[in-house]
Amino acid sequence: MKRLIAVSAVLVSLAAGAYVLPGGSILRRMATAREEKHLSAFRVEGSVIFSSSGVAEAGAALNVPTDRPELQGDGVLSVKIPGRCRFDASSPDSSLKAATVQVSGKKRVEGKEMPAVSVLVAQVCAILAQDAGSVQDTKLAQEAYLQGLGVNTKVTSLARFGGEVAYVLGDPAEGKPQFWVYKDAFRPARLRYTDASGAAWDVRFVDYASPSTGDWMPRTVEVWKAGQRVLRFTALKADNRSAVSDTLFK
Description:
The protein is 26% helix and 36% strand. By secondary structure, the protein is of the alpha+beta class.
């Protein structure tokens, strides 16, 4: 209860000193900011760290020991806009690889599925690889997607995330579905929702000011489950100019 009161107090204090845009305007500006990057495809290579319940899941998929608090490997995120995404995970301790592919909302797994990777792919595809043909259509598509996850896009407030002010779409109470957008640049910051199985997920997009990714991709994407981080993907090399093969998504 004290935590809920504290969160509410922060939201109220921030909102009191600033005008809070309605949800539709926030999503429209986010779609505009994304369109201005003129992205059609990108590839991001980096390190992936599994922790908490993610260790056992990744260990089973990659056939590596799980007697450790964290499991580190390599990750490659490949995206073709709109809506085609793939994440390949591997470990230096194993010859096995695993991948999750999503095309137009449909998921396919190569090897054994890692739930945290599937969540990363689903939300990166929906949030960073959405393009419905125009800013207005993309805004409407994002709005419908978020509402499908239970986010009340008509309710907005302000909060802080990673030291920055962010718009919060959705009921501000702890545990409610929410979508956070960095206020200054209208970039996605955070998505909180509960899936059909009752699992509470929190996907965080962190650091858009990295030399490795520029301002079009967050340097780090984290996936949290039930309040514990289960996956962190950190970009080491990113390319939004070279072609990404269609065969990756077939």
